[in-house]
Amino acid sequence: MIDRTRLIALALATALTPVMATAQVARPTQNLAAPVKTFGRVSYDARSLMIDGKREVIWSSEFHPFRLPSPDLWRDILQKMKASGFNTVALYFDWGYHSPKQGVYDFTGIRDVERVLAMAQEEGLYVITRAGPYVNAELSRGGFPGWLVNQKARARTDDPAYLAAVDEWLTHVNAIIARHQINGDGKGHSGSVILHQIENELALTTPAQRRYMDHLYAKARADGITVPLFHNDQGRNGYWVPESSTVANVVKGPGDLYAFDGYPGGTCTVAGKPTRGVAAPDWGFYGPGGAKGGASASPDTPAFLAEFGGGWFDYWGSNGGYECNAIQRGKRFQRVFYGTNLANGIDIQSFYMGYGGTSWGWLPAPVVFTSYDYGSAISEARELLSKAEEMKQLGGLIAAVPDLAGMVPAAPVQVSSPNVQAYHNRSPESDARFLMVTHKPSNGQTDDRFTITADLPDGRYTFPQAEPMRLNGFDAKWLVAGVNVGGQRLVYSTSELQTALTIDRGDVMLLYGRAGETGEAVLRYASAPTVTLLEGTATSAFDAAKGDLRLDYTHAGRAVVRITGGGRPALTLILADEAEAVRYWRGSDAVLV
Asked: 14: pLDDT confidence band, cut at 50, 70 and 90?
């Protein structure tokens, strides 16, 4: 017989117990024991790409020089990308744009591939080159030259006539790319190309396509391109993964890396209004795994999104699609979706587009009109939109915390609200942490207060220790803990880190948050430091037993705190709300306002 009194007591106890949510739970989608593969100065394992042996988060944005037919303006776009937090630019090259007739090629003036590659290197950007032969990109014939349609050969196969035409194009463009690759060409030329794509979204996988892909790989190598080669899968199909993959039901190919594309996040309504009906997908550590799980199709190589939606193309007769797309995939979308990718171990991300430009002349496919603005962070008129400001903040964190590269899942944490979830990753080398906080699901619109309980490198903490954090509406927080920043030790912060650098033997750190929200930052010292409030409002308390200096404040404009002594270099800590924080631009050795 059931004891009803006991059931009632149990129900009451359950009702009165705070609901605790756990972090996302990772699955064994990547082979963390995979060996390092080296291609000159570029190498990789399952965790990340490495340049000269240093792990890197490749934070990239797409630009099509042929959609800006003024070479003097290319540098403006590249500089704006760099200033917006990117360390890499991805470049499509349009075969038809360079070849008006068979056997004739033009790489001068507005078609000067050499010039744009040199500019990218001069502006401090790595480059991912994508030379087709077929590129799509809403171009006429997908970038194939007009004269190619006169062939009877079947395109994108191993038909000898088609391969002869392809080789004609590749012989020209590959030679230029080889001169600008980071490994050099062996003849005294070098540049900043780190990855090269040999085909684009090839969804046919018959033996004829396999022989075609083998030909493209061999051609790139024969033409002197020595960096890793890849193909971008149109979605998560598991097509053309490296031979090293042991995952069932994949289609293997000759590439060194497996890359895939994704455009989640929903679309605008026919009335030109944004929607929020789609949550951010897990395509890596925290995903379903298998051939169609994204990065899990190739466990031995780093997770690689060759195209992730930074906007969408507009169509004939729309109701202002580009303006809406800039919002649909703008502020907050970037923080939620791109952060979810990073938490899933996707350390190579390229956003399509960074600058869309104009499909002038005969460039556009019938599906699009002249403007290719794409709702990008840089508008067709080359203006930086508000979404570029947010990208600057996210890219600034990546630059300030190199330990973000190559992180792996850490032990789950506890979140005090059932409406909030947290991804928790760690660096195997330094034990630094990344906590990516979103609603559960990530497109949730609620206004929630919460704390996180976690075993961090400097101890077990429930934070914030004062007022709870707030996640209000469609938003996310990119938090770091247990990181060494300059000469400082950041135990944790409920504010997001935008940038940090060392100037004149002292450190500067910029933490920001939503206006009106409270923030808490804990720094570790050997002894009590001297805290001086230079501007604004903030309180501090020192825990001598732990060596923790805790700062509490509200994000309202700007507060500036100067911390000296305690066994560390002097620190100038800027505590800002978002409107104030986006006014700061990081130069090579200074923070500019």
From this structure: very low
> Measured between alpha carbons, how far is 56 from 586 in angstroms, rounded to an integer?
19
* Residue 557 pLDDT: 98
pTM: 0.95
User: Is there a catalytic annotation at residue 201?
Assistant: yes
DSSP symbols for 230-254: EEEESSSS-EEE-TT---TT-EE-S
Query: Per the residue annotation, which of 56, 123, 138, 201 is the catalytic one?
Result: 201
Say whether 406-592 and 42-402 share the same fold. no
Helix (H, G, I), strand (E, B) or coil at 422: strand
323-328: average pLDDT: 94
Classified by CATH at the fold level, domain 42-402 comes out as TIM Barrel (3.20.20)
Specify the CATH number for 406-592; select among 3.30.750.24, 3.40.50.11810, 2.60.40.10, 2.102.20.10: 2.102.20.10
Q: How far apart are CA 339 and CA 345, in angstroms?
A: 10
Q: Parse the chain into domains and list their residue ranges.
A: 42-402, 406-592
Catalytic residue among 56, 138, 199, 307: 307
Give yes or no for a contact between 170 and 133, defined as CB atoms under 8 angstroms apart.
yes
Contact call for residues 563 and 570 (beta carbons, < 8 A): yes
390 is catalytic: no
